[in-house]
Amino acid sequence: MTRIRFQQSLEDLKENLLVMAGLAEQAIQRAIEAYRVRDLSICDLVNRSEIAINRMERDIDQAALDLLAMEQPMAIDLRFILSVIKINADLERVGDAAKSISDRVRVMDRMAAVDLPVDIPRMASMAADMVRKSLQAFIEGDAELARSVLTMDDAVDQMNRAAFRALTKVMEDQSHLAQQALNALMICRSLERVGDHATNIAEDVIFWIQGADVRHHKSVAKAAAIAAAAAAAAAGANTAVENAPAASTAIRGAAPAATTGSVAPDGPVPIDPAPIDTAPIDTASAKS
Predict the structure, then answer these.
(1) Are 159 and 190 in contact (CB under 8 A)?
(2) What residues have CB less than 8 Å from 89, skipping those under 6 apart?
(3) Is 153 left (phi over 0), alpha (psi -120 to 50) or beta?
(4) What is the pLDDT of residue 217?
């Protein structure tokens, strides 16, 4: 395969991945719309999209593996193909999340509509925006845009935690709404996973462009902070140990003398022996 044909194969791989990305993004939007209007026909569209996404995942993986086997690429071309394989898997998981949401909508459609203390459309909009920006970063090869997606994940995680607290309280206080609250909680969980997959895509874009592995960036940053704190504590402990002899000497120098009225000299204190009686013994009186 000539270099020109190889580059064309890379472009075809990218185009196919973008088609799959469009299907996955559309599936999420349809699933949330189905939740908002309780329209089961939209759920059917989501299910059909999931089938198409699965088929494209297999085709893209096969094309990427063929390029690896036949061309044995290096450097940025190798990173691109590896990133495509990983992004492909994350997009398929986004499609799975959309189907999971549509399945929950089908269950909730059989129940009475109630107002729950959670803004699922807003959370969905944030998660979908993360997917959109991560894919834009992939299209443009923009590592900085990809890094901005990493910071957006915290907001989605925070909304998911808030939804968990609010919905579990509903289940505790209003048991008759437990099923609706549980299904809404599972939808929030699926949206949080969509945000995680968007984060993974952004990380893969950074790896492709810069060759930097930024996976688990939060865990690494936390571990670095813990290590820095431990090092600071160890340094403080060493300083205290080094200062201990000087402090001990100062304490000994400030201690009061054992005797009253004078300061004891350095070194051992001489002992005054008791006087010895040297008078002669009267032997005569001793015999009597």
Answers:
(1) no
(2) 57
(3) alpha
(4) 66
- Using alpha carbons, list the distances in angstroms from residue 89 to 1, 59, 94, 126, 228: 27, 12, 9, 21, 36
Task: Report residue 103 as tokens.
Answer: 């399945």
Residue 129 contacts residue 152 (beta carbons within 8 Å): yes
Q: Do you know the residue count of the chain?
A: 288
Residue pointed to by tokens 């009225």: 261
Distances (CA, A) of 27 to 20, 166, 200, 209: 11, 27, 19, 28
């969509």: which residue's tokens? 194
Q: What is the pLDDT of residues 175-218, one digit of tens each?
A: 999 999 999 999 999 999 999 999 999 999 999 999 999 988 66
d(CA 91, CA 132): 12
User: Domain spans of the chain?
Assistant: 3-226
Where do we find the tokens 């109630």?
114
* Pair of tokens at residue 101: 């949401």
CA 49 to chain centre: 30
Angle at 61 between CA 59 and CA 63, to 5 degrees: 70
Picking from 83, 104, 67, 109, the residue whose alpha carbon sits closest to that of residue 21 is: 83
Contacts of 14 (CB under 8 A, 6+ apart): 84
* Sequence-distant (≥ 6) Cβ neighbours of residue 222 within 8 angstroms: none
In CATH, what number does 3-226 get?
A: 1.20.58.220
